[in-house]
């Protein structure tokens, strides 16, 4: 399964919108399977951007998020603006760069600084 940075960002935004920091956050995205969403929750947890749990059973693959980590809030602060997000991801694609979290965060911060100054 391929990593989808737009889905990763959408998951982080949805978790941030959750009014409490306890319990599991239910995630549904039209047109996406629960397995695809769970896979991205697992990747975000591995990257240290959110706290999540492996709730899979013998018949289902399920990862559920609980809350953002400090690093997740930092990444999301850089990625929040739709304009900055689109410009940064577009720049990376044009240059043929892979879209890793750390590189993407650096590009997001750079684009945001350009827009400020």
Mind explaining what this structure looks like?
The structure is a single chain. The protein is mostly helical and 117 residues long. It folds into 2 domains: 5-72, no CATH class; 77-116, no CATH class. 56% of the residues lie in helices and 9% in strands. The protein contains 5 helices and 2 strands, in the order ααββααα. A two-stranded antiparallel sheet has the order 1-2. Helix 1 crosses helix 2. The model has no long low-confidence stretch (mean pLDDT 88).
Name a few traits of the molecule.
two-stranded antiparallel ribbon; 2 domains
Main beta sheet, described?
2 strands, antiparallel
Overall structural class, as computed from helix and strand content, comes to mainly alpha
Overall shape: globular
**How far from one another are the termini?**
39 Å
* Gyration radius over CA: 15 Å
Oligomeric description of these chains: single chain
Count of runs of 4 or more consecutive helical residues: 5
Q: Mean pLDDT score, rounded?
A: 88
Number of domains: 2
| Uncertain runs | none
Q: Briefly, what is this?
A:
The protein has about 120 residues and is mostly helical.
List the helices and strands and how they pair.
Layout: H1 5-17, H2 34-46, E1 50-54, E2 63-68, H3 70-79, H4 82-94, H5 101-116
Antiparallel strand pairs: 1-2
Helix pairs in contact: 1-2, 1-3, 4-5
